[in-house]
Amino acid sequence: MTLNYISGAEAVIKALVDNEVEVIFGYPGGAVLPLYDALFENKKIKHILVRHEQAAVHAAEGYARSTGKVGCVLVTSGPGATNAITGLTDALMDSIPIICLSGQVPTHLIGTDAFQEADTTGISRPCTKHNYLVKDADKLCEIIHRSFHIASSGRPGPVLIDLPKDIQLSNVKYVDKISKIKKINNNNSSNIDENLINKVATLLLQAERPIIYGGGGIINSGPTASKLLTELVDILDCPVTLTLMGLGCVPNTNKNFLGMLGMHGTYEANLAMHNCDVMLNVGARFDDRVTGRLNAFSPNSKKVHIDVDKSSINKVVSVDYGIVGDCKEVLSALIKEVKKLHNQKTIKSKTKWWSQINQWKDKDSLGFKQIGNNIKPQQAIKSLYEQTKNFDTYITTEVGQHQMWAAQYFGFSKPNHWMTSGGLGTMGYGLPSSVGVQIAHPKSLVIDISGEASFLMNMQELSTIVQYKLPIKIFILNNEWMGMVRQWQELNHGSRYSESYTASLPDFVKLAESFGIHGLRVDNINNLEATIDEMINIKGPVIADIRVEKEENCFPMIPSGAAHNEMILSSDDNNKDTSNEGLALV
Amino acid sequence: MSVYQKNEVIEVKTSRTLSLVVDNQPGTLARVIGLFSGRGYNIESLNVTEIDKIRNLSRISLVTRGTSMTIEQIKSQLLRIVPVHIVRDLTLEGPFIKSELALVKLVVKGANRVEALRIAETFRARTLDVTLSSFVFELTGKPSKLDAFTDLMRSLGDTEISRTGVSAISRGEKTETKLLDQI
Ligand SMILES: Cc1ncc(C[n+]2csc(CCOP(=O)(O)OP(=O)(O)O)c2C)c(N)n1
Ligand SMILES: [Mg+2]
User: Fold this and answer.
1) CB of B130 within 8 Å of any CB in chain A?
2) Angstrom distance (rounded) from CA A137 to CA A173
3) Does B31 contact A125 at a Cβ distance shorter than 8 Å?
4) Rounded Cα distance, A246 and A412, in Å
């Protein structure tokens, strides 16, 4: 071996370090042994051994979303790679920057159905922003550097690099990171031109009933974007609503914040969307959970859409103005223009609009009655919020009713503190994601708000949590049902509860104890506060089994196939039968 | 998970010819085709070959059909694919040339052989192979001309047809050289 040459595996690790990777989540196997060898006793990169490759990707997602950095994953060939697929799809849907390194059988065996061979690039093609099979060791370093650029630029997403074992063992000359990678296509290049910004600013200033609707793109753009959005809201004194992915961009305490919109959004947010005359969408994608029935979506408004991804504009909703660009750049240009015009013209009075909105608010769509001793799940989240709001708290969730209650009743005052699976809706996301968050923020309070069914999907990660002494609090809203499924069966299928009962649950307290961590249980409202306090005060990880009202439904709700103004606020409201078309929807 | 309704406004679907310049590497074509199948767009014709050995680039000529909103989606989705460098909508850009090549084998005996040769001559098809009971003709031109020719051949006997799909280029002096130099 010549002096200048290092092994492919060493080059990979060096390239990761050059791209500022500090943590990698992974699981070893035959096809990645050279890489694991290169990691052995490596001081610069900390490897976190998860207990399932899906969890490795979710952990990397939690890490990425709570830090703004790229999350990094290492899995073996065949089953290692296929196990990672759900995580990659999740990251693609929610635009999370991930690098996934997968082992592959040596190049000369590719295509022979070798042991633990899978067509990983084939399988992962539709669920990655881009992927590579490295067949030429000379290209290895460049591919890794490029992958980081692809994962984190424009609309972020997962990139998979498939590394045959012989490539890991070959001798390569290390190639440094190049400063700029150009791509001539104009998809990500912005069209922020003065004229357009001026038109949009004028529109916003002249609006009588404006609303800003913000999404996850603001988080991806970095904390500045959130500050700018809040500034714009303040200048215009207009209502603002956020998608599930956007929560935290505007502080929950901001007086103009109407709460989340969409299927389980607040009455005021959805009705304001329905009745506005100007809608400014910043970094959201008119997802179907948000729009409700499309042909009745905000029928009388002029719509402006800001997005880094040109293909998001006019995909499902046609807009009057599409601005392609990074949220913070567009917002800062827009604020400048609004301020300039503001000096010349007066903003239209919004008194009437606000008094209308306040009437909708009076409906108190998130109101619930905590009566009797049973714990209402809504109250559990509300109390959790009240008792943790003075900490630097990060929340992850699984998928189901508890996720929606968390979005509705927990208040998020900062971006990057809320990790949930929005686009794919992956049960089992929250626990591994919390691992990534706690690794990135060892001093902070990290809570996985979970459902008992979702928890069972990735509970093997308890072992990871114990190994790395991660003081994660697992707050299970245990209703003994796949609550969200049960709710849909109640509303749409005549209460025929087919296979939605979570039978044979473990004793969560004993489960915790078997891992050597604390388990708590509470089933009486009078003990809720004390239990939450105890959970927070325990130094290590805790599983808190919060026994909640079993058949509580999540409201308000836009039934499938309905429009924003056809929300139902409670079960009694559900007097219309869902249309046949609505029934077909998910 | 869709609350999308069937679109009530029926907009006319038109045929569009797209011309793409992509990296000639494994997986690029799979991504392009996967985009069409995964998102339910249709491909009416597809033609791919390397056009630049030094820069390792291929051109994909692609004919698709859809409403103008769908076509705009297709174009921006195509541009999201990392190894796709240029996406041109030739139909929208102006006058362009569409050409295709067909190889048509005809099994024919007796009087129809003369008829086949006469038609081939009218269409300016070349005869590439002759046996006592068959011909292979080669014909280039617009797809509609190829359609007409193959239809006629079919009525004369048993046929086997191989077509390349449309290859397209814009008219006039405009080229992509400047754009390609930036790759
Ligand atoms: C991997 C996966 N499988 C199935 C579903 C469909 N699903 C959505 S919510 C839900 C029930 C979740 O139950 P639980 O975790 O107990 O939460 P709850 O709704 O009761 O709060 C199911 C099965 C899903 N989202 N993800
Ligand atoms: Mg449950």
Assistant:
1) no
2) 9
3) yes
4) 10
Cβ of residue A142 closer than 8 Å to a chain B Cβ: no
Computed on alpha carbons and rounded to an integer, the radius of gyration of chain B in Å comes to 20
pTM of the model: 0.95
pLDDT in tens, B26-51: 899 999 999 999 999 999 999 999 99
Ligand 1 atom closest to residue A477's alpha carbon, by position in its atom list: 21
Of the candidates B2, B84, B179, the beta carbon closest to that of A585 is on B2
Of A319, A282, A284, the residue nearest A303 (C-alpha): A319
- Concatenate the DSSP letters of all residues of B65-93 into one string: EE-HHHHHHHHHHHHHSTTEEEEEEHHHH
Interface size, chain A vs chain B, as Cβ–Cβ contacts under 8 Å: 79
Q: What is the pLDDT of residue A92?
A: 98
Which ligand lies nearest to the CA atom of residue A403 in the structure?
1
Helices A401-409 and A483-492: crossing angle in degrees, nearest 10, is 100
ipTM of the complex: 0.90
Residue A487 CA, closest ligand 1 atom number: 19
Q: How far apart (Å, rounded) are the C-alpha atoms in residues A211 and A322?
A: 16
- Tell me the shortest Cα–Cα distance from B160 to chain A, in angstroms: 32
- Write out pLDDT tens, residues A532-586: 999 999 999 999 999 999 999 999 999 988 999 999 998 777 666 677 777 787 7
| pLDDT (average), residues A210-239 | 97
What is the per-residue burial (b if ≥16 Cβ within 10 Å, else e) of A18-28? bbebebbbbbb
pLDDT at A1 over 50: no
Rounded Cα distance between B61 and B167, Å, is 5
pLDDT of residue A411: 98
Q: Could you say which residues from 95 to 124 on chain A have a Cβ atom under 8 Å away from some Cβ of chain B? A: 121-122
Residue A340 tokens read as 């300039």
Q: Which residues of A279-303 are buried (b: 16+ CB within 10 A; e: fewer)?
A: bbbbbbbbbbbbbbbbeebbeebbb
Q: pLDDT per residue over A67-109, tens digit each?
A: 999 999 999 999 999 999 999 999 999 999 999 999 999 999 9
pLDDT tens digits along B73-84: 999 999 999 999
Q: What's residue A166's pLDDT?
A: 98
The verdict on the CB of residue A481 being under 6 Å from ligand 1 is: yes
Length of chain A: 586
Instruction: Output Rg (C-alpha) for chain A, integer angstroms.
Output: 25
Distance CA A392, CA A385 (A): 12
CB A438 within 8 A of CB A472: yes
A116 is catalytic: yes
Cα(A584) to ligand 2 centroid in Å equals: 24
Q: Looking at residue A126, what DSSP letter applies?
A: G
Query: Is A53 among the residues known to form the active site?
Result: yes
Could you tell me if A10 and A41 are in contact, meaning their C-beta atoms sit under 8 angstroms apart?
A: no
CB under 8 Å to B102, separation ≥6 — which residues? Answer: B137, B138, B139, B140, B146, B149, B150, B161, B162, B163, B164
Tokens 């830090």 sit at which residue? A67
Distance CA A104, CA A140 (A): 14
Locate A173 and state its tokens: 């000359």
- State the average pLDDT over residues A409-425: 98
Phi-psi category of residue B157: left, alpha or beta, with phi > 0 → left and psi -120 to 50 → alpha: left
Contact A124, A160 (CB under 8 A): yes
Give the E-state strand segments of B24-154 in sequence order.
42-52, 57-66, 84-89, 96-107, 126-131, 134-141
Determine the residue of chain B that is closest to A324 in CA distance. B76
- From the CA of A502, how far away is ligand 1's center (Å)? 10
pLDDT digits (tens, 9 = 90+) for A163-218: 999 999 999 999 999 766 655 454 556 778 899 999 999 999 999 999 999 999 99
* Paired tokens of A390: 């003075």
Q: How many residues does chain B have?
A: 183
The answer to whether the Cβ–Cβ distance between B79 and A186 falls below 8 Å is: yes
